[in-house]
Design goal:
The chain is about 40% helix and about 15% strand. It is an alpha/beta fold and about 220 residues long. Bound molecules: cobalt (II) ion (CO).
Length: about 220
């Protein structure tokens, strides 16, 4: 990996084991609200009115977060940017700070497969960490029992809320101004910017095989 002072990476929805700071904007917004920082109070004023925190405020928070000491050796953004506007603002903010992204990773997964993975998830009554999913062959339950311990299985209510899943996927799979548009914005940039690499991965395999493929493509 390049060893620049401001080594930065952006990964869109993927799993990897890399030593760097994981930046979760949602969590950071809540932390700032709790601590009553100026930008936290700004965000709170929107939430209190029942409005969404504007992209501008979220981006201000993200920019502040990645300038903290623990991001010196790199960071991984999870759940951000979610739309085109946030992608543009992130790019602007990084530019202004003399930073850039080394990698942008897009994991390709058909919408129906993504939905099945959520709706097929089952929770084991004995241990929450026992993976069971009726739509994933590798972790399919034994009948209606946990495949690891034989415990009783149940589905989480919000995993079965098809309307809510569709709403989130409408944003993610929107390639006009949603999350896919944000990904493609960086894909285009990577074509013009030699320091940035855009990696596309097939998300239909197992977590292990996706991780292996990804690691083999990072230099
Ligand atoms: Co179990």
């Amino acid at each position: 990996m390049r060893d620049t002072k401001f080594r930065t990476r952006l990964f869109l929805c993927f799993l990897a084991v890399i030593v760097m700071t994981l930046v979760l904007p949602g969590l950071y917004v809540r932390k700032n609200i709790k601590e009553g920082t100026p930008v936290g109070l700004k965000a709170k004023s929107y939430i209190d009115r029942g409005e969404l925190v504007p992209d501008e405020v979220t981006c201000e928070l993200v920019a502040a977060r990645i300038n903290e000491k623990d991001c010196e050796n790199g960071f991984l953004l999870d759940g951000f940017p979610r739309n085109m506007e946030q992608a543009r603002k992130l790019h602007e903010a990084l530019d202004k700070a003399g930073m850039h992204l080394d990698y942008v990773v897009e994991i390709l997964l058909p919408r129906q497969v993504a939905k099945n993975r959520i709706m097929g998830r089952r929770l084991c009554a004995v241990n929450n960490n026992h993976p069971n999913n009726i739509f994933i062959d590798a972790i399919k339950p034994e009948g209606d029992k946990c495949r690891v311990c034989g415990g009783a299985l149940s589905a989480r209510a919000d995993d079965q809320n098809e309307e809510a899943i569709n709403k989130r996927h409408d944003i993610y799979y929107n390639d006009v101004d949603g999350t896919l548009a944000a990904a493609h914005y960086f894909k285009k940039l990577a074509g013009q910017e030699p320091r940035m690499t855009y990696i596309e991965l097939n998300g239909e395999g197992s977590i292990d095989s996706i991780r292996e493929t990804l690691l083999s493509r990072l230099n």
